[in-house]
Amino acid sequence: MVGLTIAAGNVGLHHTVANALKLCEVAGRNDIPVFAGCAAPLLHPAPDAGYVHGLDGFGDVGYEPAVRQAEVEHAAQAILRLSHVHAGKLLLVALGPLTNIALALKLDPTLPERIARFVVMG
Predict the structure, then answer these.
(1) Residue 90 forms beta bridges with which residues?
(2) pTM for the complete prediction?
(3) Which residues, other chains included, contact 116 with Cβ-Cβ below 8 Å and sequence gap of 6+?
(4) How many CB atoms lie within 10 A of CB 120?
């Protein structure tokens, strides 16, 4: 795995990034860089689903925050950079909103030419 790019989703970006960092820590995968991306959809506002998933998106269990922070590079820029580094071999998996991918495509419409496979949970 070359990285996780995180967008706001069921809850805000602060929480989704914190949750990704904590998941990596619990799984013993602090070697995977986490990139924060888009804080909101590009066109239409999205409702917050904290009433379903807990205000933090993790059921409000009160976990200790992860020790490390997200990378400085924006998620869309990371997608583009990694698509060049791993051109023709990159498996891009989208488990949530496609906002970071949409922004990466807007910045560089040739992105799909470098992706080996794109899987979407939709």
Answers:
(1) 115
(2) 0.94
(3) 88, 89, 90, 91
(4) 11
Q: Tell me the two tokens of residue 52.
A: 């379903």
Using DSSP's 3-state secondary structure scheme, residue 6 falls into: strand
**What DSSP string describes 93-116?**
EE-S--HHHHHHHHH-TTGGGGEE
Helix orientation angle between 99-107 and 75-85, rounded to the nearest 10 degrees: 60
Distance separating alpha carbons of residues 54 and 68, to the nearest angstrom: 23
Q: How far apart are the first and last CA of the chain?
A: 21
> pLDDT digits over 3-35, tens only?
999 999 999 999 999 999 999 999 999 999 999
C-beta separation of 84 from 110 below 8 A: no
Judged against a pLDDT cut of 90, whether residue 90 lies above it is answered with yes
The residue-averaged pLDDT of 56-61 equals: 91
pLDDT of residue 50: 87
Residues 6+ away with beta carbon under 8 Å from 110? none
Q: C-alpha distances in angstroms, 7 versus 47, 87, 95, 109, 113? A: 14, 23, 10, 20, 23
